[in-house]
Amino acid sequence: MWQPKSQLTLAQSVKGNKIASLRKTDRNETKMKLAMLLSRCCAMLNIEKNMNSDQITFAAEHLVQEKWMYSLEDIQMCLDRGAAGMYGTIYNRLDLSVINEWVAKFEYERQSHIHSMQREEQTNNNIYDIFAHPQLAEALQQVSDKLLIKEVPVREIKRSKASNLEQLIMDEYDELALWGEDVAFRLYNNLPYQFTEYRKERIRELIEQQNEY
After folding, report:
1. Position 157 confidence tier, pLDDT thresholds 50, 70, 90
2. How many helices and strands, by DSSP H and E, does the chain display?
3. Is CB count within 10 Å lower at the N or C end of the chain?
4. What letter would DSSP give residue 184?
5. Which residues are CB-neighbours of 197 under 8 A, at least 6 positions away?
């Protein structure tokens, strides 16, 4: 018998089979699994106005019909996080409207994770080619000089000391706004970045700007 997954992560949920695909194979079974997830969520909440069987059936049909772009694992993670209070205070009731609010907030987290995965994949595909480019060192030095608006004598940079460009990027990152309460992420162009990801993104931008001169 099908059971919800334990210790589920976003990396796992976004790769799960989508409801659109599952309902083509067996719509009733897909609806039954969604009803199981909804019942599981109800059982985790100690509230007066919880969902009854008719509401659960109605909500399951709604998810099958309207949330076809998600996987069962996505729905499970959304419900688990909502029940844990991660999407706001639960005011003593649970119904489809509350669940739809949770899904909207989950979508933001899901898309941020997908964008991060896409950037990482693109970086992994391109990073070796970028750093193998014979003009990279010269281009970075020229960009650094223009940003600092002063000439820097050409010299070998000690390994133990950050370059002017590296220091500039670190200073930029420190000035960015935090992403929520997570000190490991900063917002840049309305997307969350860890420093390593931000550094790769800024180097890529600077190289593109240099090519435009």
Report:
1. very low
2. 8, 3
3. N
4. E
5. 116, 119, 120, 123
CA gap 75, 69 in Å, rounded: 10
Whether 72 and 33 have beta carbons less than 8 Å apart is answered as: yes
Tell me the C-alpha to C-alpha distance, in Å, between residue 5 and each of 33, 67, 72, 189: 12, 19, 10, 34
Structure tokens at 178: 């935090």
Q: Are 77 and 4 in contact (CB under 8 A)?
A: no
* Contact of 176 with 187, CB cutoff 8 Å: yes
* Residue pLDDT, tens place only, 9-19: 888 999 999 99
CB-based burial, 174-188: b 16+ in 10 Å, e otherwise: eeeeebeeeeebbeb
- Do 47 and 90 touch, CB atoms closer than 8 A? yes
Q: Tokens 């739809």 sit at which residue?
A: 100
**Residues contacting 156, CB < 8 A, separation 6+:** none
**Between the CA atoms of 178, 181, 182 and 183, what dihedral angle is there, to the nearest 10 degrees?**
60
- Given a contact cutoff of 8 angstroms between Cβ atoms, the answer to whether 14 and 114 are in contact is yes
Question: Is the pTM higher than 0.70?
Answer: no
